[in-house]
Design brief:
The chain is mostly helical. The protein has 16 helices and no strands.
C-alpha cells in the first residue's frame, strides 16, 4: 500500500516542510513507521489486557453492573482530564509526555500481574487498572495527535491520522483472541506482563524521534495556572467559527452514534433471534469494514474537502443504520453486510476531524485544542450510550436503529450547511 503516486521526497519547498511548517527530516517516513510500529504493538497488548480484564470480571462476578462501571471507568477519566492533558502536551516535550503516559500504564499492568501471581488480585485492583488506562490516554492522545504535524508533510497528514483508526480496527479483531488465548492457556498474569512489554517496546520505538518542545521554543518559562492555558486552547477553537461549529455538531453526532456499538449484540439477539456466533459475526464485519475504510483513506488521501467527507460519512452511516432497523428478522446476513458498510464509513470520520483541527489551530496551542476535542468526543459516547439504552428499551432496538439513523443523517446534512464550515475546505483547494 503506497501513500501516494507523488514522491515522498523532492526539491519543492512543500516537500521539505512538515505540516506545521518545520524542516522535514529526509527519512520522515521511516521515523513515522518506527513510531507507529511501537504504538501498534502497545495497542494490541493493551486491547488484549483490557479484554482479559473484562473476561475476568465476567467470569468471577457475572455482574452487569460491574461491567457497566468498568465502561464508565474507561471513558470518564479520559473525557474529564483530556483538556489538562492538552496543557501538558503544549507545556512540555510531547515525546516525553507520550513515553511517560505509556510507561505509567505499563507499570500499572506489571503491578497487577504481580498481584495476580501472588493471588492477591481484586475487582478493585482491576478497576484501578482501567482508570489508569483512561488517565494515561488523556495525556497520551493529545500529545500524540499534536506531535504528528511536526513530523509529517501536509499532503500525508490525514493518512497518518487514519493509522490510529486502522490499528484500532485490527486490534479489535485480533486482540480479544490473543487475550483469551493467554488467559486460558498461561494465566491472567501473562496478559498483564505482555502489556507491560508492549509499553516498553512503544517507548523504545519513540525514543529516537526528535519532537520539539513548543513551550521552550516560545521562551515561556513561567508556569501559568492550567486553567489559563486551557482557556487558550478553548479560544483557539472558538476563534475559528467554522471549526467550532464543526466540533459542536460532531459532538452531537457522537452522542447519536455512541449507542450503536453497544446495541449491536442486542439487535442481533432481540431482532434477528441470533446467538453468540451471530453477534460475533456482526462485530467482526463492522471491524473489517473499519479496516477497509481506513485502507481506502490511506490510499486515496481523503481529497481536498475534509469537512464534506465528514458530513457525507455521517449521512451514509445514518442511512445504513436506518436501513438496518427496517430489515425483517430473517435478514441477518443483510444486516452483517450493512455492519461492514457502517464500519467503512466510520473510518472516514476521526481522521478528517483531527486533521482539520491540526490545520486550523496554531502549533503552540495544538495540544490544548485537541484535548478539548478529545474530551468532547470522549464524554459524548457514554452520554449517548445512556440515552440510547433508555430509548431502545422504550421503543425497541430495531425502531431505535431507524430513529437514530435518521438523526445521524440529519446531523450530517446540517453539518455542511454553515458557510463557515464549508470554508474549512477552501484553503486546501488548488
Amino acid at each position: 500500500m503506497g501513500f501516494s503516486s507523488q514522491p515522498l521526497s523532492g526539491n519543492s519547498a512543500e516537500s521539505r516542510l512538515s505540516a506545521s511548517g518545520r524542516p522535514l527530516s529526509r527519512n520522515w517516513l521511516a521515523i513515522i513507521a518506527f513510531i507507529w510500529a511501537g504504538q501498534a504493538v502497545s495497542m494490541f497488548t493493551s486491547y488484549a489486557a483490557s479484554f482479559a480484564a473484562v473476561w475476568y470480571v465476567t467470569e468471577t462476578t457475572g455482574s452487569a453492573i460491574l461491567l457497566s462501571v468498568m465502561s464508565i471507568c474507561a471513558y470518564l477519566p479520559q473525557g474529564v482530564l483530556s483538556p489538562y492533558g492538552g496543557v501538558i502536551a503544549d507545556r512540555y516535550n510531547r515525546k516525553a509526555v507520550i513515553i511517560a503516559a505509556d510507561m505509567a500504564v505499563g507499570l500499572v499492568s506489571l503491578a497487577l500481574g504481580v498481584l495476580i501471581l501472588l493471588d492477591d488480585v481484586s475487582i478493585a485492583a482491576i478497576m484501578l487498572m482501567v482508570i489508569a488506562r483512561s488517565v494515561g490516554q488523556a495525556f497520551h492522545g493529545p500529545a500524540m495527535m499534536a506531535a504528528m504535524p511536526m513530523l509529517v508533510p501536509e499532503k500525508h497528514l490525514l493518512r497518518i491520522n487514519t493509522l490510529d483508526m486502522m490499528l484500532m480496527s485490527v486490534a479489535g479483531i485480533v486482540s480479544p483472541a490473543l487475550g483469551i488465548m493467554l488467559y486460558e492457556g498461561v494465566g491472567f498474569h501473562a496478559v498483564m506482563f505482555l502489556d507491560f512489554a508492549g509499553a516498553v517496546f512503544a517507548c523504545l520505538a519513540l525514543a529516537k524521534a526528535a519532537i520539539p518542545s513548543i513551550h521552550k521554543e516560545a521562551g515561556a518559562c513561567e508556569k501559568r495556572h492550567p486553567l489559563v492555558e486551557m482557556k487558550e486552547g478553548w479560544s483557539a477553537l472558538r476563534v475559528n467559527r467554522g471549526l467550532f461549529l464543526l466540533i459542536v455538531l460532531i459532538t452531537l453526532g457522537m452522542v447519536s452514534f455512541g449507542p450503536m456499538g453497544s446495541l449491536y449484540p442486542l439487535m442481533t439477539y432481540d431482532h434477528f433471534g441470533g446467538d453468540g456466533f451471530m453477534a460475533a459475526v456482526a462485530e467482526a464485519t463492522f471491524a473489517g469494514g473499519l479496516f477497509v475504510g481506513s485502507l481506502i483513506i490511506m490510499a486515496w488521501g481523503g481529497g481536498k474537502r475534509l469537512a464534506l467527507l465528514l458530513a457525507a460519512s455521517c449521512v451514509a452511516f445514518g442511512i445504513l443504520a436506518a436501513a438496518s432497523g427496517l430489515l425483517s428478522p430473517s435478514m441477518f446476513w443483510v444486516f452483517a453486510v450493512l455492519c461492514a458498510a457502517m464500519g467503512m464509513v466510520c473510518a472516514w470520520f476521526n481522521g478528517p476531524t483531527v486533521t482539520l483541527v491540526q490545520r486550523n489551530v496554531p502549533e503552540e496551542k495544538m495540544g490544548r485544542a485537541l484535548g478539548f476535542v478529545t474530551a468532547a468526543m470522549g464524554l459524548a459516547s457514554p452520554v449517548g450510550i445512556a440515552l440510547g439504552g433508555m430509548a431502545a428499551e422504550a421503543i425497541g432496538v430495531a425502531s431505535f436503529f431507524v430513529v437514530d439513523g435518521v438523526i445521524c443523517a440529519i446531523i450530517g446534512v446540517v453539518l455542511y450547511l454553515p458557510k463557515s464550515v464549508r470554508a474549512l475546505d477552501e484553503p486546501s483547494a488548488e
